[in-house]
């Protein structure tokens, strides 16, 4: 059995790759963490996303194990076993039953899907779509660059540019989008090395070709329905990248959220009230 260092429960909305960096920080710090997800997550970097537990019942990313549970009454058993529980609860209806010390919105939807300051004493959100001091107490900057991980206590994070971050000198060509509505069928797998022009997947039978050589770092789950224009894959030009481990960005954001939690707590949760 694991011994939890803190009694304060932490609810994290979202279990994608960036949210997983946040989950790991709080898990390692000894907090009882619960993840809330949608019935059909669309994470691209699935090898480092605990949201995969929605489909498989269980997911493991580095030292963090995550188990899908059916209700709040199963949370304590998971925590005592050193496992992070995941509830399918996109609306956050279980939050009032959990009574968390903090609610962290790590959905990265670039809009607020309902997180508000009434949910917990401490509320933190990642990225655009939230106003610190109004919607939540603190917003974390998610745009790569000098301000990545900055705590914002008044106002907004930088607006989404629609352009992927620059990696290896390449930006927009790294990300592939669905050419039509339809069902995903894989031709390659996460971790495969591909050449420019290779067919990575099909959507409703329509091929999606990679536009640069590199390593398949992200690939949306096979068999799910996607909409035209939806992000479906991510190619990294660095073929030696460790796609099994949490990214530098996710670790940075996780540390920033943990910092924000202790900072807000040290000020008595009275910021901008």
Percent of residues in β-strands: 25-35%
**Shape call:** globular
Give the terminus-to-terminus CA distance: 39 Å
| Number of DSSP-assigned strands | 17
Mean pLDDT: 92
Rg (CA only): 19 Å
Helix content: 10-25%
* Widest beta sheet: strand line-up: 3-4-5-2-1-6-7-8-9
Q: Which H/E pattern describes the elements?
A: EHEHEEHEHEEEEEEEEEEEEH
| Main sheet attributes: strand count, strand direction, barrel closure | 9 strands, mixed
Instruction: Kindly name the structural category.
Output: alpha/beta
Q: Which residues sit in consecutive blocks of at least 5 with pLDDT less than 50?
A: none
Count of separate DSSP helical elements: 5
How does this model look, in words?
The relative contact order is 0.17. The model has no long low-confidence stretch (mean pLDDT 92). The protein has 273 residues and is an alpha/beta fold. 16% of the residues lie in helices and 26% in strands. Helix 1 (17-28) crosses helix 5 (248-266). A 9-stranded mixed β-sheet has the order 3-4-5-2-1-6-7-8-9.
Features:
single chain, nine-stranded mixed β-sheet, four-stranded antiparallel β-sheet, 5 helices
Short description:
With 273 residues, the protein is an alpha/beta fold. 16% of the residues lie in helices and 26% in strands. Helix 1 (17-28) packs across helix 5.
Write the layout of secondary structure elements.
Elements: E1 10-13, H1 17-28, E2 33-37, H2 53-56, E3 58-61, E4 64-69, H3 75-80, E5 84-88, H4 95-98, E6 102-105, E7 122-126, E8 138-140, E9 151-152, E10 175-177, E11 182-186, E12 193-194, E13 199-203, E14 206-209, E15 214-219, E16 225-226, E17 231-236, H5 248-266
Parallel strand pairs: 1-2, 1-6, 2-5, 4-5, 6-7, 7-8
Antiparallel strand pairs: 3-4, 8-9, 10-17, 11-13, 11-16, 12-15, 13-14, 15-17
């Amino acid at each position: 059995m694991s011994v939890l260092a803190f009694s304060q429960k932490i609810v994290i909305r979202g279990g994608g790759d960036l949210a997983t960096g946040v989950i790991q920080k709080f898990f390692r710090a000894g907090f009882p963490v619960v993840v809330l997800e949608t019935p059909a997550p669309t994470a691209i970097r699935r090898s480092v996303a605990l949201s995969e537990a929605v489909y498989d019942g269980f997911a493991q990313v580095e030292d963090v194990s995550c188990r899908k549970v059916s209700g709040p009454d199963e949370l304590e058993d998971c925590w005592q076993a050193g496992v992070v529980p995941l509830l399918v609860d996109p609306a956050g209806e279980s939050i009032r039953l959990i009574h968390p010390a903090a609610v962290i919105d790590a959905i990265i939807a670039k809009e607020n899907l309902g997180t508000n300051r009434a949910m917990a004493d401490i509320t933190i959100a990642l990225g655009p779509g939230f106003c610190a001091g109004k919607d939540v107490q603190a917003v974390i900057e998610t745009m790569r660059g000098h301000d990545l991980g900055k705590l914002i206590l008044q106002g907004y994070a930088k607006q989404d540019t629609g352009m992927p971050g620059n990696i290896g000198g390449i930006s927009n060509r790294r990300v592939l989008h669905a050419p039509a509505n339809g069902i995903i069928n894989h031709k390659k797998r996460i971790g495969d090395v591909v050449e420019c022009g290779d067919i990575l997947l099909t959507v409703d039978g329509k091929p999606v070709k990679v536009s640069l050589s590199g390593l398949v770092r992200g690939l949306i789950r096979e068999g799910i329905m996607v909409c035209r224009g939806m992000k479906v894959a991510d190619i990294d030009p660095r073929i030696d990248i460790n796609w099994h481990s949490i990214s530098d960005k996710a670790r940075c954001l996780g540390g920033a959220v943990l910092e924000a939690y202790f900072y807000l707590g040290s000020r008595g949760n009275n910021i901008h009230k």
